[in-house]
Write a structure and sequence with these properties.
The protein is mainly alpha-helical. It is built from eight helices and no strands.
């Protein structure tokens, strides 16, 4: 159902972008990348914050499921962050003639946050102990999450060349563009949730598969051990029966000899 809703929202968003939203007076058709670039950036930053909140839940409860959710939220946000930087570079090239502009605070501040979170996975997997790995990664996620509001504030205060105001009372988008943007934002948010759900389900499936493999590997050895023990018991029983039989025959022969 979540995937179906995501596909429907994306179809509606694309229809609004190409057939409903008007062309920008200055940038023309190039401005339509705004409906992809900005929602990707917002959802990516919100995903980083969600990863920090989920990490707090893990630190408080010690439940590994919260750690897995935090990891998936940050991992998916990094993917959306890459898409944000790519679409932003395309927009910058078409608008300014350069792939990157270092004096643009919106781009640079997002890049700083992205590079900060890009160290999350190397830090996490550099630790072998699973418990320490989860704990240190959660502390990092919480600490890095504090930088995300700073990025948002920098974006709001920046005098951007091409980034319109889209949130709050300072929005300067026409109604048709604002509606298209909100639908596109909903579609990207649903896509993020769908990808997170699928990755979590894949992790559960891999965990179950590893458990089944361990059970299959331990099963034959346990059966062989049980079989060997049962065989030893049978051999011991047969030996005891033979000893008793031999003792019985000897006693009978002794009694017969005495009687004779």
């Amino acid at each position: 159902m979540l995937a179906f809703c995501t596909l429907a929202a994306m179809a509606v968003a694309l229809a609004l972008v190409f057939f409903y939203a008007p062309l920008d007076a200055e940038q023309g058709f190039l401005q339509k990348i705004f409906y992809v670039h900005v929602p990707l950036a917002i959802v990516s930053l919100c995903g980083f914050v969600a990863g920090g909140l989920l990490a707090i839940a893990y630190l408080r409860s010690g439940d590994a499921r919260w750690d897995a959710r935090s990891y998936v939220a940050i991992h998916t946000s990094l993917i959306f962050g890459v898409a944000t930087l790519i679409t932003g570079s395309i927009w910058a090239k078409g608008s300014w003639g350069h792939w990157w502009v270092w004096d643009e605070p919106t781009l640079v501040s997002f890049l700083i946050v992205f590079l900060l979170y890009a160290t999350y996975q190397p830090l996490r997997f550099a630790i072998e102990d699973p418990e320490r790995q989860s704990r240190y990664a959660s502390v990092f996620a919480v600490t890095a999450g504090a930088f995300v509001p700073m990025n948002f504030i920098a974006v709001r205060l920046a005098s951007s060349y091409v980034h319109p105001r889209v949130l709050g009372s300072t929005s300067n988008l026409p109604p048709s563009m604002a509606l298209t943007f909100l639908v596109a934002l909903l579609a990207v948010a649903l896509l993020y949730a769908t990808l997170c759900a699928y990755e979590l389900q894949a992790k559960r499936a891999r965990s179950q598969l590893r458990a089944l493999r361990r059970a299959m590997e331990l099963g034959p050895s346990m059966h062989e051990g049980a079989g060997d023990a049962l065989g030893a018991r049978r051999e011991a029983g047969a030996g005891a029966a033979g000893s008793l039989a031999s003792a019985g025959l000897t006693s009978t022969a002794t009694i017969s000899g005495r009687a004779g």
